[in-house]
Design goal:
Chains A, B: It holds the Pfam family ATP-grasp_5. Two copies of one chain form a homodimer. Helices cover about 40% and strands about 20% of the residues of chain A.
Chain lengths: ~700, ~700
């Protein structure tokens, strides 16, 4: 697209010269027209006769609006009259508007009255761009009027947008159907609308000082889109972007931090109950194979390891310094660690930003920057990296190796992760506390885990993002390779208030987070337990090749609930072709219901489960199975579990890998059966039809976003 | 309100005489006007000149519409022209409309063209009434146009409605704010709208043959409501209502069935693996104290009890006959049981309506009716009533007594109920399988449990309701005394399809179920596990007196997630008054955050938890507490659990009963701590911030609907 950037620059220069921060309507119109956005025919009138003349030249009806740099909300000022039908009415409307404007604000400078072609028909939509504190420039799209204002039916994306992304915005609102024309209404030219969204997003990208651009309404007909009203605010600070490290810089630091050859524990202690003692024990007892250097000016050895007075006294290189000393001593110790050339400073102590002590936190960051040290924390429990047997934390050690990497912004949530992992025997590669995120944040972790062969899935609890754009861009790339699950806390108005008092972070608008995380391929977990269950289950399930999900159930009642859950989690129940239906029917009693769910009925022997599951695995048109088990004497829970594992493994050996999840209804023996299934890669739960489907739904959300459903 | 019923009857008589089932526009207008509903000024024109004259008399603009008994969708037929501005245009519009109508349907009888005052301004809303297969006459209210058609923003109630219910409909749509006037728009006269809803609901109640009444649009201004278009369909079958028993009749049967002195087992068997053997064992080993009579023509004694050939041979009265024989033998055996005077026939066998054998099911019901016997089932696992140690089922016996009564339509779900109950040690009064619901259904059970002193809460899994109106009316009454929790399966389009293939029941529209269940005070559980957790937790929590919920947390991160969950579950985080804030601050570190959540911070000793919780319990302005625990060495999990139980029991002893729930974050020891808390009446869960808040939310939903929040 070719834009007249010089025209925009001219308007902005004039604005700066005048010391204004809001564009007048004609200025706004000039700016968007320079970006190829159509606006209604119009003229500026400076007296009643003039208004009559301009209006007659445009053709009636016209709409007339006050032009004043001091009046932003024209309607509130009585500064808008619509449906002006002839020349006399135009002159009269001029007088009324000016009189209203003067009454509203006697000091307002009145430039004149804009006389504008009044468009009829079409749909009113809103296209806008704002500068979000988390994500920077974002574009918004919604249907005009009450739909946006009352129902908040609006969607957001990072600017600039691709053509596909712009189109996804138009399909992404709840009332999208309206623009396709319902009940005989005119459809909108959605391609032209998508084009308009791109132009707006390019405009704010090219001119970052445009803090806010509102095209409201835009009138979208079947053949054109016209920005009827344009409102633009300028703020020189709106163009500021946070400091970023390159991917290579991040990896250079993170590789040394996560896989250190040598760590120093500053504040190491021999005294039970001290944090510096717990950290030492966890490093030593956890089996860390690298060098461990206790630093304590008053000790000569701790846990059998020689202690040094200062980091500087350690022979050889040190990759990581773990700080287990009070906050006030951190700056001096960090200077020493920086001089020693550590890659990472793990700041366990609290007493920084979270308690209001922002100066100390800023001072520490400045020292780290000076020495090229990256900081994890402060105010954290530490971190685990199981491939190195590294438990750099004051909590208990954790050693069940596996493919799940987790992080949490809060220590409490970190402990929940640890407890859940241990209880569910979930194999993890890393658990990382990020705390105040004075420096290292989620996109640094994503960048490391992306290339970490020990990590298959990343799950993150977060309350805010310091640089949402960097996160979104990184997640967009990483989620193509590995599922990224995010629990975004503070997602509601009340929640956000709590987040604010907890971290001092600016509360983000949840709708913005939601849209942009989804667009980045992130799987958002609705709650803590969901995040943990997704993290545990998603890596076990093979990636489905297509959307065809089949439910096979011994309990019709479970089948109904599993179907409900499929709809809740955007899974598609396959429409079973006739031949497949016949094939299922061959295995089930005549009163069982084929179709989908396949209801094999309750009194069936193990062979019926086995035959129907084998059919589901063997038919290439079926991409995923959901099993509903009903406890009977004929097929007891462990019999069911063993036959399922047996048939699934038989097909795995043949190279057939499909996700299989199960819901078990029955007496307490179904708990053991569910655990057995889970241990063998079939995500199974007792007493719930929702959880297995939710985990499968998370797998599908990821696979869709990563473009892996090759059969669909 | 006074209605001209004779005018409506006259129109309907004419319609019947003509053999029509749809009212013409003038007839529809006459019917609603007879019920005091305003319609626009109008006249019928039968030629172009006539149209010009009628229009001139009404004043311009007018809207003109085809009148034909054969054209229902006037717009589709090109039979509507709006904004007709003068007499000449009216004549021309007449010609156009008639020409279009003839093109649309050459056989249509054309009565003429309706010329109608064209109203301007105001809001378009829809008011309608339909005959629902489950609930009978229901009224609907929504905002007109795309809001109803695309966003389905519509709400339903049983007709007739009270004034308060009609008002709740106007507040119950998502876009309710629009009618209150947003951004300078005109507010609607909501009292007049509520009045209109009542008139429509009275109309269909008085004339049940009105199958469908559509007032669309109704134009609602600040001063008037006018039904612009009226569409009414008549169906003589629309007035049919299902057979009902009186409350006294239901109780007479149900008391004998649930608390029998004597039961017969038809098809009792001594042979292991037979259903008739399992039932006998469960009755005997379960400890049932009443008389047990095995019935088997080929045995003389079973499990040490004398067997009889037929029910008729049993000496003395028999309350319940449990059928453990194949379906085809049921009719003859039921004749005998009926002759013996049993109150209830428990039909365990399948092979009735669920396999398509509706004739057999109808035959069995007819036999039961003849003898005054009530049927439970067929196609069920049986039922449990623990106060009598009665396990009348082929599943395993269950004996943990408590206040929860459960029912399920599906056997699979029944087994999940049993397993969950046993695993969670949930005390139950009853578990009842209702299966095909050939006779006894949920409102019979509700009526029994309402008066059953052993039951505190009722939880029901259902896929359909045979008589939704009877259920809603009973639930409305019962839920004032005891929480009623419903898991309605088949709530989505896909789910409903599965329900249909499973039970042959007509799939209800979920929006109708949702609104009417809520209006009846029922707590709807979103899923199976939720139903079970609500059933377990809600009775343990004291009923809150008001809406003020306070979160006390050791983990700020949990506080944010708990706040999120409060919003999800419609709980109000109390705005802490200054004096209370000061009181909390006295106990927590200076960098802790008072306000709500009260963040006591992570490193605190047990006394900080104890002091803040005691303050929360003692201050009468606080009505409920949510605790967030963070596992630390200073306050280990069991220390926390014991101090919480201690302080809660201390206040209970003083007569202070407030609901307290807890979320525990920590290593695996929090599991034991959560169980300890739960056993002592504090609903607590590890690794989840959602579940404890969901259970508290369920308690609040019930307390609000039952009008128990006396402090609010």
């Amino acid at each position: 697209m070719s834009y007249d950037k010089a025209a925009v620059r001219a308007v902005l220069d004039k604005l700066a010269a005048d010391g204004r921060d809001a564009l007048t309507a004609p200025e706004g119109r000039a700016v968007v027209e320079a970006y190829g956005i159509r606006t209604p025919g119009e003229g500026l009138a400076t007296n009643p006769e003039d208004a009559a003349g301009v209006a007659s030249a445009l053709g009636f009806p016209v709409v007339m609006k006050i032009v004043s740099p001091d009046i932003l909300h024209k309607t509130d000022a009585g500064g808008v009259i619509v449906g002006v039908a002839d020349a006399a009415a135009a002159a009269e409307a001029y007088r009324t508007i000016v009189r209203n404007a003067r009454a509203y604000n006697p000091d307002a400078r009145i430039v004149g009255v804009q006389v504008q072609e009044q468009l009829t028909g079409g749909h009113e939509v809103i296209v806008g761009a704002v500068t979000d504190p988390t994500f920077g420039k974002i574009v918004a799209f919604g249907l005009g009027g009450v739909l946006v204002e009352v129902l908040r039916d609006v969607t957001f994306r990072l600017a600039p947008t691709s053509p596909a992304t712009a189109r996804s915005m138009i399909d992404g609102i709840k009332a999208a159907e309206i623009l396709r024309g319902v009940r005989g209404a005119e459809p909108a030219d959605t391609e032209a609308l998508a084009d308009l969204i791109r132009r707006v997003s390019d405009l704010v990208t090219d001119f970052p000082e445009l803090a806010e651009v509102d095209l409201n309404p835009v009138l979208a007909t079947a053949t054109s889109v016209t920005a009827v009203d344009v409102r633009i605010l300028v703020d020189p600070d709106a163009g500021k972007t946070p400091q970023r490290f390159t991917r290579a810089e991040i990896l250079a630091s993170m590789n040394r931090i996560m896989r250190p050859a040598s760590v120093a524990v500053i504040g190491a202690s021999a005294e039970d109950g001290k944090i510096g003692n717990s950290v030492m024990k966890n490093l030593v007892n956890g089996g860390f194979a690298g060098a461990i250097h206790p630093v304590n000016p008053k000790a000569s050895e701790i846990l059998g390891l020689p202690a040094v007075q200062s980091v500087g006294d350690i022979p050889g290189d040190v990759d990581v310094a773990i700080f287990a000393i009070p906050a006030k001593f951190v700056p001096a110790a960090l200077e020493e660690a920086g001089a020693k050339g550590v890659a990472g400073a793990i700041l366990i102590p609290s007493g920084f930003g979270e308690t209001g002590n922002h100066e100390l936190q800023d001072e520490v960051v400045a020292i780290a920057r000076k020495h090229g040290v990256r900081i994890l924390g402060p105010n954290i429990y530490g971190y685990y990296y199981t491939p190195q047997h590294l438990s750099a934390t004051f909590c208990t050690p954790y050693d069940v190796q596996g493919g799940v990497a987790l992080s949490s912004q809060s220590g409490g949530i970190g402990m929940a992760i640890l407890g859940f992992s241990r209880s569910a025997r979930m194999g993890v590669s890393a658990i990382v506390g990020v705390g105040n995120k004075a420096d290292i944040d989620e996109d640094d972790l994503l960048t490391f885990f992306e290339d970490d062969d020990h990590t298959q899935l990343i799950a993150m609890h977060l309350e805010d993002l310091k640089d949402g754009r960097a996160f979104a861009e990184t997640a967009q790339r990483v989620s193509k390779r590995k599922p990224v699950i995010v629990l975004k806390a503070g997602r509601t108005a009340q929640g956000a208030r709590a987040a604010s008092s907890h971290t001092g972070a600016l509360a983000g608008d949840d709708a913005v987070y939601d849209d942009i995380l989804r667009e980045s391929g992130v799987i958002r977990a609705p709650g803590l337990n969901d995040m943990l269950e997704y993290a545990r289950g998603v890596p076990l399930l093979p990636t489905p090749k297509g959307e065809n999900v089949v439910i096979i159930t011994g309990a019709g009642g479970s089948g109904v609930l599993l179907s409900d859950a499929c709809v809740d989690h955007q899974l598609s129940l396959m429409r079973i072709p006739h031949d497949l239906d016949e094939a299922f029917r061959a295995y089930i009693p005549p009163f069982g219901a084929a179709g989908n769910p396949v209801d094999i009925t309750g009194g069936e022997p193990p062979s019926t489960y086995r035959n129907t599951i084998a059919l589901g695995l063997s038919d290439p048109r079926i991409h995923a199975l959901i099993l509903g088990y009903w406890h009977t004497i004929v097929t007891p829970p462990m019999t069911f579990a063993e036959l399922v594992v047996d048939v699934v493994e038989e097909f795995r050996a043949k190279g057939v890998h499909k996700p299989v999840v199960a819901s078990l209804s029955g007496d307490v023996e179904v708990e053991e059966a569910s655990e057995y299934l889970y241990r063998h890669g079939v995500v199974a739960y007792p007493y719930t039809t929702e959880k297995p489907v939710a985990v499968l739904g998370a797998k599908y959300r990821w696979a869709r976003a990563a473009g892996l459903l090759t059969d669909s």
